[in-house]
Structure formats: structure tokens, C-alpha cells
Amino acid sequence: MNFVTAPLIADLFLLAISAIGRAEVKAGTIGADNISPIDIMVFFLSLAYIAISIDASGLVRYLAFKVLLWGGDNGHRLFFYLYTFFFTLTACIGNDPVILSGTAFLAYMTRVSKNIMHPRAWIHSQFAIANIGSAILVSSNPTNLVLAGAFEIPFINYSANMILPVVFTAIILFPFLLYVVFNNKDLIPTQITMEQLSEDARKEAPVNPNIPHARGAADEEERSDIDDGVGEESKKLSLQEIMHPFLDKKGAAAGGIIMAVTLVTVLALNAASEKIGKHPVFYVTLPASVLCFCWDVAYGWRHRETTRLIARKGLQAVEEARERRQARERQASQAVLDSRGSVKGEKSPVQSPATPDSLHKRMSGDKDIEAGGSPVQAAHPAREHLKSDAKSAGDMYEKRQISQEFTGLRPKPKRTLATVLAERYRWSQVTFPTATAVASHLPYALVPFAFSMFILVEGLVKNGWVPVFAHGWDHWVTKTGTIGAIGGMAFLSVILCNFAGTNIGTTILLCRMLQAWQHLRHTHNTPISDRTFWGTVYSMAIGVNYGAFSAAFSASLAGLLWRDILARKHIHVHGSEFARVNLPVIAISMVVGCVVLVVQVYIVRGEGAYDGRF
Predict the structure, then answer these.
(1) Each residue of 233-251: pLDDT tens digit?
(2) Which residue ranges are recorded for the region named Disordered (predicted)?
(3) CB 129 within 8 A of CB 86
(4) What gap in Å lies between CA 435 and CA 432, rounded to an integer?
């Protein structure tokens, strides 16, 4: 059971006991109260394709390489440059490309550094700033899409209200990370000493990591490192990844132009929605993603002969390296057996192991000796039993030898749907490497998870739980006022991210609760002040974005992806370490963000009744 199957099973169980019905399923898929799950999912996935396509072109790693050169060997300056770079990039195209490529880049960079003893400071800072930066644009995170849709906030207005709290958080958090949380020369050295890439490696053409086996025997040699991926060959590969990165200039330019035009068009149409009418935003992003996909497919087809040749040569090199590794392993095993045999030979006169044939011959020899009048006339009681066992063992040995000889004559396994699909996938990898790589990295798991969570929340609405939560929230706001509303919602959203089905589930639940709160106040003819309402909404926006780096990986889908990428790079972050490192980071981030938000709403918003204006 995981984050996809758990809510789905819960939905099926509630349907089975009639706790929810057709109306809840329809509201959780088609939409209700300005929340349209289908529009949100199509918009996010289509925009994610463009962003990941830009990442697959190598642009993110290439820019990170340039930042690395600008930072030089000054550790604090490099930390600041990378921190700023990841924040800016996330604010522009979202946190998915930053998590996908930025995490791998930092894993390689810290591996080839001689005096960075642990990558903790770099990877945790990158994850935190990626989630902070994703709070600025609506398109950067599905939680922002849910929130903006629930309260019908124009995208420009959303960004205008979020930019100050987010920017101030990023500015104040940096010295806190550098001089308080990670104030250790083993984590962020004053001077960084990097391994140097050889001249021969610099002259080689950079390989496209999207092509299977593009690095040839290097991947196999990396796996054979005795220290689990941190040996000399692994360091060489890491150096090539960060100091000699691949860049598809045409693909990066095409993806960048499509992304820029798409975002500008979405913002313009969303801002003009009051005059021209509302239209689903995926009307813009879906055609743009199709255009980007067509570019990737056409570019791959045009260069298919080159990519297939690279993949073919790489596969051949991998097979040769694998054979060499297996030969080394056999030699090592034989050496161990020989050493054990020599030790046994010193202790016992027996010089050869007892194979089935030798054992059978030994039994036969004993019989001949007895028949020839050997002075040893007394037979062991179990001798006949040993003879029978030896003969059976010899027969089995012969059968095994015959079976091994005829192994090559066995018919090939039948083609099944699984084998056909695997062959088609390998063909698409070597024919359309970029399109296939992007398609394999799309967050498909988000779709069933989000729909299941939408349906679960609709079930809570139907059964009266959301109105109960709204009553409790109303009592809290009545007693604490605007500041209490901002602080309470910030705390609640961060905590629920870790327990309510990631930050997406938290956003869905809290949006429905605030909508019920609006309805409750309207029913009682007690208006909510404009300052309190928008302070609560934007406090939730801060909390669900920042809550991704709080206590658990499952607080966000990005956290689960981040952990898996690090594990593939031989960096294992335990849950306790994740919570321990992030506790002070989330604390200072939320305090700064909420303080700036309080000042902002007291300056911009008034005490008048909320009337739906933004």
C-alpha cells in the first residue's frame, strides 16, 4: 500500500458501505464549488511536460555548471550562487525540473569534492528553496492551482500577494542556513577543493543521458565499484556529469520559447477573464505541450540513426564490461576456494574433494579390496547405503551435465504482451530519446492520488465533517482575530501536510473548510473582514508550499521523488534525519513568511467586509 493505493482503497471501501455515492464521485472528478480536478490535472501535467522537456535537453545541468564556474572554489559564494539559482529557476518553471536535475547535480558535485564530507547542507537547502520558490506562480505547484481555483483568484493577483512573503523568506533563510543550521566546515567549507577532469575527458563529446547505454561501459564499471558507487570510476563519471554536461541547444531553445509563450498567454487570458469570459487554462497549456511533444518526436526521428548507433555501441561495451566483471568475480571465487582447499590440505591427507564419480569409484574400490582378500574384512554397517547414495549422486551429476549441454537447444520463450511492450519501449528509447525520457518522468501517480483525495474530501463534506471543522475554525478566528487566523492556518497547513495525504490533500481539505466557513458566516449574516479572509487564504498558500520540507517525505510528492533520486545516487536520507534537519528550517521560514504577510495585509487590506474582490 502506498500513497496512490491507500486513498483509492479508502474510496472503494466508502462506496461499498454507501458512505459516499455517485454525487461525491462526480464532484471529486468533474468538480464542485469552483474546484475542477480535471482542469487542474490536465493543466499541471501538460505544463509539467514542457518543464521536464527543458530539463531533458540538459539546460538545467548546463546552467548549474555555469553557476559552479562562477562560484569558483569559494564555498560560501558557491552556496549562495546555487541557492539563488535554484530559487530563481523554481520561480520561473516550477520545482519539478529543479528536483529532477538539481538533486542529481548536487549529488555528483559533493561526491567529487575532496573536502565536503557530507552533502546534507547542499541537498536539504536545495529542497527547501525549491519548495519556497514554487509558492510564487500558480503554475509551479498543483496546490497553488487548487487554491486559486477554489477562491477564483486571478493568477497575477495570486503572485502579487505571494511574492513579498516568499522573497523575504528566501533572503532571511540563507544566512540562517549558512551560519546556524549548517555552520560546519565539513558541510560547507570556506574553500572547496574539487577533483579535476582530465584533458582527454574534456575532449570527448558529452553524451546524451537520455539515450540508453550512452555512457557505454562506464555504467557497468560504476556498479562494480567495491565501495558502492564512490570509487574512482564513479568519481570520474560524476566529474563528467557536472564539468562536461550535455546540452541540446535547439531543444532547450524550443522548450524555453514554448514555456515562456505559454505562461505569458495563460497570465494574460486569466487576467482578462472578466471581460472575455472564463475558459479552462488547459486550453492553452495542452496545445503547447502537444507542440513540444511534436518537436521532441520530430527531432528524435531526424537523428534516429545517430542515437541508435550510440545505443548499439554502448550496449556492446556494457556487455563486454559485464563479462569482464563476471570473469573477475569467478577468479576471486576460485582464489577463495583454492585458499580454503590449501588450508584443509594441511589438516587432512585428503587432497581432492569427493565428487559423485570419485565417491562411487571409492565405494567400488573398497568392494574390490574386500573381494581380493584384503586383511580388512569388517565392513561398515552403512557401507551399502553409502554405495547407493554415491550411485544416485553420480546419476544426478550426469543428468545435470547433459541438461547443461542441451540448454542452448531450448526454444525461445513465447512472445507475450509484456515482452512486446518492453521491446517497443526500448525501440522508442533509441528512436525518440527525449520524448521517451520526458514521458517516463511525468508525475502520473499524481492523477489517481489527486482524484482519490478529491473524492475523499467530498465524502467528508457530505457526512458533515467539513462543516464541523469550519465551526471550530470560526471559533478560533473569533477569539484570535486576523493575526490568530494567519498563524493558526500556517500551523495547521504545515502539520496536515504530514498527515493528510501530502500537501495536495491538505490543500483540498482546507479549501473546502474555508468555503464552508464562508457559507457559515453568510448564513449567520456575520461577514468576514477582507483582511482576515485574505490573510487566511495566503497563509494557507505559504503553509502548503513550505510544508513540503517539514517532518516527513510524504508531506509532498516532490519529497518522495527527491528521496528516490538521492537513493539512486547512493545518498540515503533517513526519515529521522529529514525531520531533524528541516525542523529549524521550516520554523524560521514560516515565521518570516507569516510576519511579512501580517504586515502586508494590514497595509493593503482593510477591516471592511469581504466582498469577493481580490
Answers:
(1) 556 666 777 777 888 899 9
(2) 203-228, 322-397
(3) yes
(4) 6
C-alpha distance from residue 331 to each of 335, 338, 444 (Å): 6, 10, 45
Exposed / middle / buried, residue 447 (Cβ in 10 Å: 0-12, 13-18, 19+): middle
Contact, 538 vs 39, CB < 8 A?
Answer: no
261's CB contacts (< 8 A; 6+ apart) are 288
CA 142 from chain center: how many Å?
16
Which H or E run includes 297?
A: helix 282-302
**The cell 547512493 sits on which residue?**
570
- CA dihedral over 76, 77, 79, 83, signed as positive or negative: positive
d(CA 325, CA 224): 7
User: Whose CA is closest to 190, among 71, 87, 105?
Assistant: 71
Select from 461, 550, 442 the least CA-distant residue to 508: 461
Least confident of 57-71, 174-188, 319-333, 413-427: 319-333
Determine whether 550 is exposed, middle or buried from the number of CB atoms within 10 Å of its CB (0-12, 13-18, 19+).
buried
Which pLDDT does position 234 carry in this prediction?
Answer: 58
| The pLDDT value given to residue 398 | 46
Could you give the angle at the alpha carbon of 143 between the alpha carbons of 101 and 487, nearest 5°?
115
3-class secondary structure per residue, 129-151: HHHHHCCCCHHHCHHHHHHHHHC
pLDDT for the residue numbered 171: 96
CA–CA distance, 328 with 321 (Å, rounded to integer): 11
One-character DSSP codes across 508-567? HHHHHHHHHHHHHHHHTT-PPBHHHHHHHHHHHHHHHHHGGGSS-GGG-HHHHHHHHHHH
Amino acid at 148: A
| Cell, residue 365 | 574400490
- Given pLDDT bands bounded at 50, 70 and 90, which one contains residue 81? very high
Cβ neighbors of 338 (< 8 A, separation 6 or more) are none
| Confidence (pLDDT) at 237 | 67
Query: What CA dihedral angle connects 355, 357, 360 and 364, to 10 degrees?
Result: -130
- Does residue 400 surpass a pLDDT of 50? no
Phi, psi of 122 (to 5 degrees): -75, -45
pLDDT at 342: 64
Quote the CA–CA distance of 605 and 422 in Å, as a whole number: 58
Please state, in angstroms and rounded to a whole number, the distance separating the CA atoms of residues 549 and 455. Answer: 26
486: cell is 494567519
545505443: which residue's cell? 311
Alpha carbon distance 37, 29 (integer Å): 6
Phi-psi region of 251 (alpha: psi -120 to 50; beta: other; left: phi over 0): alpha
The answer to whether the CB of 104 falls within 8 A of the CB of 57 is no
pTM of the model as a whole:
0.78
Q: What are phi and psi of 357, to 5 degrees?
A: -65, -45
Q: Is the pLDDT of residue 9 over 50?
A: yes
- Cβ contact 111:232 at 8 Å: no
Cα torsion at 576, 584, 595, 488 (round to 10°)?
A: 30
